Predict the structure.
Amino acid sequence: MVLAGKTALITGSTSGIGKAMAESLAAAGAGIVLNGFGEKDAIEQQRAALEEQYQVKVTYHGADMARPSEIEEMMMVAATEHGRVDILVNNAGIQHVADIADFPPERWDAIIAINLSSAFHTTRLALPAMREAGWGRIINVASVHGLVASKHKAAYVAAKHGIIGLTKATALDAAGSRVTCNAICPGWVLTNLVQQQVDALAQREGLEQDAAKARLVGEKMPTAEFVTPEQIAALTAFLCGPHANQISGASFPVDGAWTAQ
């Protein structure tokens, strides 16, 4: 229970990686602020289950991370309900795949807003209270695409490279306050976003689902295995713990040796 008495806000935490992160941090004793889209009943079931299982306070705010005014409201509600946000995990993200010449401008704007600008807004609002408390953790979920590029993902690659830069700048601005900022860079994780790419590959090449998954992951990751949300969540919990006090401004690939090539 190394995070007892702390509060963690995780954007995009009603599914996938963010959901696993919320559970891992709750298991370490942190109160949780959930955020994301989904069915109202399913979100309430998730909230109540976390609260009951780990005996921590869990709240939910449905802020659209493309809208700065809703982000500000979410941060104010979190501070009111929990005192302050001690741990901020910027995880929310969307994807669109197209050649850059055919990339819809509105999709570019949405991806930059949700995948990059939202992290700036949450960070600028959370950092003052962290500095005042003399402790804080900011974790940005980037991607292997924050380190290398792939075809047809101009907006996503640009946003995730931006997240790496934002991580470094935040770490420097926060230095000396016992607030750290780091980025996690997953390879292929079988989230809803990646499943959409599996489905597209299967349809395009006439493949079965298992064959499409193997083709997709094997093209990039020498280990030929998907990263799991639980692995990302475990690294998140470590970076929030006392052994990570001097880790700041770093980017952690969890990518099956993708970027080692």
